Amino acid sequence: MNLVGALLVAVLIGAMLPLQGLVNARLGVHSGGPVVAAFVSFLVGTAMLGLYLLATRTPMTLQGASKWPAWIWAGGALGAIYVACFTLLIPRIGAAGMVCLAVLGQVTASLLLDQFGVLQAPKPVDALRILGALLVLAGVLLVVAPWRSQGAASKTATQSIPADRQ
């Protein structure tokens, strides 16, 4: 896949995130809450990945896993926390606000992880990268607009959803 193709796939994958959050939030309403919805989401995802591994006959090596550092398993825990919190917060913040705030957190944490070389070679943060992060912050403020009254917008949005879709 060339660079343009990879960039387009990245955008499409990113476009799926708010839909996943909305689907999981609705699942949480029907299933017992955001943690149940996150569990079901991971269960379905695990089943799909398992089927993919079987279909492609991908070799899986867990030999020596007991000797791996304990932190190596944190990815699954971090993903579960992310999905559960996303599912909990998206009905309160909205899809656009939640994605923007998540991206702000990702950019900020990524710059810190790059600067200090956490689990990779350090990549120093320069003025241009900080400017990029500030532009992300400006975008978040414009999308989330915390100075606007949220009560009227939320009430109108809730009233406009047909009962069979809630």
From TrEMBL:
Record keywords, A-Z: Membrane, Transmembrane, Transmembrane helix
Name of one Pfam family that matches: DMT_YdcZ
TM ranges: 35-56, 68-90, 96-116, 128-147
Keyword Metal-binding set for record: no
GO cellular component: plasma membrane
Name of the protein in question: DMT family transporter
Organism ancestry: Bacteria, Pseudomonadati, Pseudomonadota, Gammaproteobacteria, Lysobacterales
